[in-house]
Design brief:
Layout lengths: L25 H15 L3 H9 L4 H16 L26
């Protein structure tokens, strides 16, 4: 019995091809490098202090929320579903537009 070759040895996924999992692409590396250079010239503590001392309450709240998320992690989002066991219900999830 002969093995069937679908692409005639051309195209398709090949084992070991591409960049390794977890490594960053060229675009990501360039944007990270630019961000690091910009942030190197900023006094972060002074900037955060100024944001937290703002007269605009929205800026204070967003600054505190961001710092809390970075320090303690974002809170998990939970979903609670309660149903009466005597009744029957059906949940239909449908994806519209692909």
């Amino acid at each position: 019995m002969t093995a069937i070759v679908l692409h005639g040895g051309r195209g398709g996924a090949r084992p070991g091809a591409g960049r390794p999992k977890g490594s960053l692409g060229r675009k990501k590396l360039v944007s990270q490098d630019i961000a690091v250079k910009i942030l190197a010239g900023i006094d972060e503590k002074k900037s955060w202090t100024e944001l937290l001392a703002s007269t605009d309450e929205r800026i204070k709240l967003e600054s505190l929320r961001y710092l809390s998320d970075r320090a303690y992690g974002r809170p998990s989002q939970s979903l609670e579903l309660q149903a009466h066991t005597e009744s029957f219900f059906q949940i239909i999830v449908e994806r519209v537009g692909a």
